Amino acid sequence: MSIPIINLSLLTERDVVHTRQRAREVAAELGLDNQDQIRLATATSEIARNAFRYARNGKVTFSLILEPPQRLEVTVSDSGSGIPNLDQIFEGRYKSETGLGMGLIGTRRLMDEFHIETSSKGTTVRMAKRISHHHDTWTQRTAHDLSRKMQTRAPENPYEEIEQQNQELLKTLQELRSRQEELELLNHELEDTNRGVVALYAELDERADYLRRASELKTKFLSNVSHEFRTPLNSVISLARLLLERIDGDLTAEQAKQVRYIESSARDLQEMVNDLLDLAKVEAGKIRIRPKRFEVHELFSALKGMLKPLLADNNSVDLIFDDATEIPALRTDEGKVSQILRNLISNALKFTPNGKVTVSARMIENQDIEFTVADTGIGIAQEHHEDIFREFSQVENPLQEKYRGTGLGLPLCRNLAMLLGGTIWLESELGVGSTFVVRLPAIYVGEATQTEEMSPLPVPDFHRAPVLFLEDNIETLELFETYLRESEFQPILTSELAQAEAWIARHTPVTVVADIYIGNDLSWNFIKRLRDRLPDLPLIVTSSHNEMQTAYASGATIFMAKPVDRDVLLTELRRLTLHGGTRKVLLVDDNEVARYILRDLLDQPWLEVQEAANGTAALSALKDSIPDAVILDLLMPDFSGFEILRQLRSQPATKSLPVLIYTSKVLTDSEKVQLDNWDAKIIRKEEVTSRLSAKPFLDWVKSVGLVPEPATREHNA
């Protein structure tokens, strides 16, 4: 409800002064403080002056709005021609020679509410000032009393109002001057503070630059030193393995024991070097996440096989993997998950003199996977739970003196878990055992599973031997395709029985690799029909279950339990389809021990190995005769492997010569790209010395076609 308090007409200049006077009086009666009285009087005077100066028939109405929040409303109206460009005025873009615009903007800022309507018939401005909640108890009766009081009050001398206004202005100017002085003082303080902040930032930048350079130097140092460490370590391990395998004669029991000590110490040192490099890569942000889809139970099977050697050294501990067949497939970096679990399990086996180590997994709300490694070992006291996750930290406890480690494995596990978007924590009590829990997202952030349709089946390549795969799991098919990507075999991928039979009706593979369970069907009848039709065709049957006897009874040549290992699969494919031949390989390495070990590993009747001790000797040998392939080290005293490879690729005769890079150098991304552009495959020396196996080299030699072509048969329906 709106109660009119007083109405005024704007006929003379004196009426404008009278309006200001009445505005201040009404505001005082309503209980507004001195500042709000001045704001209201100033705003009313400004709008009233505009109505008198630029229009005609100006009127001012003061009303009290009783609805909460209670407020004093002032309405100023006229019958002028209106205000043009009102939007531009309030946006501050309008410039007028008469002064219109700034008064409206200033008035709107002084009042709590402001509304203006303008047209060619006139302008009406409504503005309001809220009453303090201490005085907003006005009723209809008290409002009418105020109206009668204001209407009967005689107007004061206008000169007194002007004097009052001047006093207000002087007071305002004094307050502004005081605030300006305070502002200047504050500005001086801010300037001093800014100088300190600038100096601090400069020092922080200097420190950050120093730390950045120190980190780069550390990474570079670790990279260079690791190569210097790895080369002799690889040689020591390889020579120890050669001695233990009695290749050059028997050893006494004591000598064998000493050699095993040598190998064990070298492997411990190699493990420390590898952990240092991994930590440096994580800190430098050079670890790449390679997410892929995989099954947890297959991961557990692979871990069980990898950790068998540790169980052989401690047969009083049982390693138990809980059943994980019901857990959905994950999509994250399988290699890093395996590295985390491998480290945790090996620690558990090491710190458990007797008892058991249990590995389990469970899904958390179908979003996270939680791996648990629990042991019944010596345990860790509560106060050391965080210490063990610090680099090089060792628990100072007499009970653990004989279980000393590098102090790098657990910090690396935590960093890798964080990279995958997860976390790792410990639950343990001294003398009772320890439980490490790793929680990771089931799907790596930014990754999503997609079902891809099978592409049309290809026809056999003329230069590659076709191998038909029958498997209903798309991820497993992709894995098989990856296994054969750089080999002499062409993968033909099928996911349905009808699809496989349709392809075989037109073509004949050199081998068929078939899973038993294809969707809701079994492939036994398909295998039997294939055996009856092509009795000499090698058949490899795979399954996650033990179906060996049934597979052989149905005509299988080989049965392989899932997960199928790449090296085993390629070895069997080559054994079933290829026959021998003689090829010449040039081995270029300045390290005599490395050449000795590799020459021993490549002791095959169909391979002739020629050696070159440096880059100069290698280039001379290449001028005399071009080999079938080159195995090349990168770091040599005269010519680097990069320079030799560049010269090979620049000459027509050796442009397509197969080259294998055999090195322990940590390659940068640009070096990897360069080697990839030069079509050079890479095998790291530590990967070979850890197993002392010739398979990586023999697989490469065969993958680049250095064996006689397999006998393939083409069949038309």
Automatic annotation (TrEMBL):
Alphabetical list of SUPFAM superfamilies matching this protein: ATPase domain of HSP90 chaperone/DNA topoisomerase II/histidine kinase (SSF55874), CheY-like (SSF52172), Homodimeric domain of signal transducing histidine kinase (SSF47384)
Catalyzed reaction equations: ATP + protein L-histidine = ADP + protein N-phospho-L-histidine
Keyword Phosphoprotein: yes
CDD domains hit by this protein: HATPase_EvgS-ArcB-TorS-like, HATPase_RsbT-like, HisKA, REC
Record's protein name: histidine kinase
Domain Response regulatory: 466-577, 584-696
Organism, scientific name: Telmatobacter sp. DSM 110680
Keywords, in A-Z order: ATP-binding, Coiled coil, Nucleotide-binding, Phosphoprotein
Chain positions found as 4-aspartylphosphate: D515, D633
SMART domains recorded: HATPase_c, HisKA, REC
Domain of life (superkingdom): Bacteria
Assigned EC number: 2.7.13.3
EC main group: transferase
An example molecular function term from Gene Ontology annotations: ATP binding
Residues forming coiled coils: 159-196
RNA-binding is among the record's keywords: no
